[in-house]
Specification:
This protein is mainly alpha-helical and 344 residues long. The protein has two domains: 13-210, no CATH class; 236-340, no CATH class. The chain is 49% helix and 6% strand. The protein contains 14 helices and six strands. It has helices at 13-27, 40-50, 59-71, 75-89, 91-96, 105-111, 113-128, 134-140, 143-152, 202-209, 264-273, 276-299, 307-320, 327-340; strands at 178-180, 197-199, 216-217, 220-221, 236-240, 255-259. The strands form three sheets. It has a two-stranded antiparallel sheet with strand order 1-2. The radius of gyration is 25 Å and the shape is elongated.
C-alpha cells in the first residue's frame, strides 16, 4: 500500500464481538441450542430485529438452524472451524504468512455443503443488513457512522492502494464504500471485522481489485501488505523513458519498477492486486509532460534560476511531501526526465 491506514475503536466493533462469542462458545461448542448461551445484549438485539414488521429473514431461527448444522459435525470438525474463525480474523498475520492457512467456503463445503451455503448467506447479510439497521444504529452506530469516524482519524485521505485519488471524507455528505480486503465471497467469518474493511477508491476497488484474493494466486500462497500496517521500507518507484522527446512518448513505452527492501513479495502482490503498473503508466503518460513543462516554464520567467536549479528546487519540495499530489510518482518521473535530457 502507498500509505497505511489508522485503525479506530468504535461501538460497532461490539457486533463482531457478539459473532465471535456465538461462533466459539455456542456453534462450535456443541450441545443443545439454548438462547441463554448468547450474550444477553445480542439476544435483545436479535429479538428486536425479528419483531420488525417488514423483516422476512428472522435472525433467531437462522442462528438455531446454523447451530443444528454445526451440531451435525464431529467434534474435531467443530474445533477446526473454531480455530479457522480466529485465523480468518487475524488478517495482519495472514498477510505476513505467519499463521495457519485460512479457511475458505470451498474448504467448508467439502464436509458440509449446507453449512457452507448458510454461513455464506449469514455473513453476507451481517454486512449488508445488520450494519445498516436502524435498530443497530441506535445503540452501536452503523456503517455510515463508522466511515465518518474512521476518515476523521486519517491524516492522509487519498486512496491507500494507489495514492492518486481523494476519498470521500467526514466532511462529505455521502460516504465511500468499504472494500473487504479478504473477499467476503471467498472467506467466511470476517465480513464485519473492521480490521479488514478498507476504504479505497472506486477505480482500485471496482475496476482492478474486484474479487481478487490477496493471499493466493493460481493456488500459490503469497504475502501482502496489510492496509493498517506500514511497509518496513517505503515503496520505491523507478521510471524509465524512451528518450527526451516526452511529447511523443506512448504509455506502453514508459517502464516502471517497484521495490521495497525485503518486502518484494508484498510489493508484487500490491501491484498485481490493484493494477498499479497500468494505472501509474497511464497517469504518468497523461500528466508527466505537464510536470516537466511546469519546471521549464517556471525557469523561463524573467529573473528565475536555471532549469537545472528549478528542477532541483521542485524535486526537494516534492520529496518533503511524497503523498501530496502524486509526488511519489512525480519525483521518479522527473528524475528520469533529467537523466534522459529533457531539461537540457
Amino acid at each position: 500500500m502507498i500509505h497505511a491506514l489508522t485503525p479506530i475503536a468504535h461501538k460497532l466493533d461490539k457486533v463482531h464481538e457478539f459473532i465471535s462469542h456465538l461462533m466459539s462458545q455456542v456453534w462450535c461448542a456443541g450441545g443443545p441450542w439454548d438462547e441463554s448461551r448468547l450474550y444477553s445484549d445480542f439476544v435483545g438485539l436479535v429479538k428486536a430485529l425479528d419483531a420488525e414488521p417488514n423483516r422476512t429473514k428472522k435472525v433467531m431461527p437462522r442462528l438455531k438452524h446454523l447451530h443444528d448444522l454445526f451440531s451435525a459435525l464431529s467434534e474435531p470438525q467443530r474445533r477446526w472451524l473454531r480455530i479457522k474463525f480466529y485465523v480468518n480474523n487475524n488478517v495482519p498475520d495472514l498477510c505476513c504468512g505467519n499463521l495457519l492457512s485460512p479457511a475458505r467456503y470451498s474448504d467448508i463445503e467439502k464436509s458440509s455443503p449446507d453449512l457452507a451455503k448458510e454461513l455464506h448467506s449469514f455473513f453476507d447479510d451481517l454486512y449488508s443488513d445488520l450494519l445498516v439497521s436502524a435498530l443497530v444504529k441506535r445503540t452501536y452506530g452503523c456503517r455510515r457512522d463508522h466511515y465518518k469516524a474512521f476518515m476523521g482519524a486519517q491524516s492522509v485521505k487519498t486512496c491507500p492502494a494507489c495514492g492518486m485519488r481523494d476519498l470521500l471524507t467526514e466532511d462529505n455528505t455521502p460516504v465511500g464504500a468499504y472494500d473487504h480486503f479478504l473477499p467476503k465471497g471467498i472467506y467466511p467469518f470476517n465480513s464485519i471485522n473492521f480490521k479488514q474493511l478498507v476504504p479505497i477508491c472506486d477505480i482500485c476497488n471496482g475496476k482492478y481489485k474486484t474479487t481478487k484474493d490477496p493471499l493466493y494466486r493460481d493456488s500459490a500462497s503469497r504475502k501482502a501488505f496489510h492496509p493498517f500496517v506500514a511497509p518496513t521500507v517505503a515503496i520505491g518507484i523507478q521510471v524509465g523513458l524512451p528518450g527526451p522527446l516526452i511529447d511523443e512518448a506512448k504509455a506502453e513505452e514508459i517502464e516502471l519498477k517497484f521495490t521495497s527492501g525485503n518486502q518484494q513479495d508484498e510489493v508484487d502482490t500490491w501491484a498485481w492486486l490493484y493494477g498499479i503498473e497500468e494505472q501509474y503508466r497511464s497517469f504518468a503518460n497523461e500528466n508527466g509532460k505537464h510536470w516537466a513543462k511546469q519546471i521549464i516554464n517556471f525557469s523561463n520567467r524573467p529573473g528565475q534560476k536555471s532549469t537545472r536549479e528549478c528542477y532541483e528546487d521542485h524535486i526537494a519540495t516534492y520529496k518533503d511531501q511524497p503523498l501530496r499530489d502524486q509526488h511519489f510518482l512525480r519525483v521518479p518521473f522527473l528524475e528520469e526526465c533529467e537523466r534522459v535530457g529533457v531539461f537540457n
